[in-house]
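thought: fold this chain, then report.
action: predict
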Amino acid sequence: MLRAVRKHITCNWAVLYIERWLKAPMMKEDGAIIERSRGTPQGGVVSPILANLFLHYAFDLWMTRTHPDLPWCRYADDGLVHCRTELEAETLKVELQARLTECHLEMHPTKTKIVYCRDGKRKGNYPNVSFDFLGFCFRSRRVLNSRDGSLFGGFNPAVSPSAMKAMRETIRDLNLRRQTHLSLQAIASKLNPLLSGWINYYGRYAPSALYPVLRHVNLTLVAWAMRKFKRFKHNKTGASQFFLRLVKESAGLFVHWRLDKIGAFA
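observation:
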């Protein structure tokens, strides 16, 4: 009985604390104060907490209760459900739409789709044969068999084109090409945390798909050297060869060099 009372008190305290957050005034960038009586501001720290709490009941427990035989996963407001047939997928889509409507939610009209997982054994022709999830693109790919070294058709993830575009934009935003006052070690200190995170996350599956991004990093370094050193001003080949020698002498300078994911310099 005492445990139940303590649990009940803790739960009520959490609800009251969240309600206090919900009703707290919001300060805009210009310092103006806005009073609120409902909702949470976009980007607020409590928003993802409330979203996950709500979707746990609106989606997670509903799927477990009504479709215990279907594997599924959810991250924030993105989710996947694995079905065995197209009819089963179509039926689930209708049921899920009804469930979300009941909870005053709706599925995204263009991002929600039924995907055929085409591979070496499933060779049907369907309009949707790939999808993006958490920065990965899942589609038919040639996969190496670890047992005999042969290749076969699988439905596997690799870093998505949109994720690679975002990574290249992040590198461009650093404006390293014009940071000629910095040393190469200082540039490495700016890039290595980013590269380490990308390689550890996206390199988990099909690491070779990251090579275009790593090549973009190397070309950025070449462009930096051409601006910083007079001898490389109009000599891209010389700058590239300079970094090729540097890789051998100081492989630990950049994360992708250290992990032998060097990439090209031309």
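thought: worth noting. The beta strands are 26-27, 33-34, 72-75, 78-81, 131-133, 136-144, 151-159.
final: tokens above.
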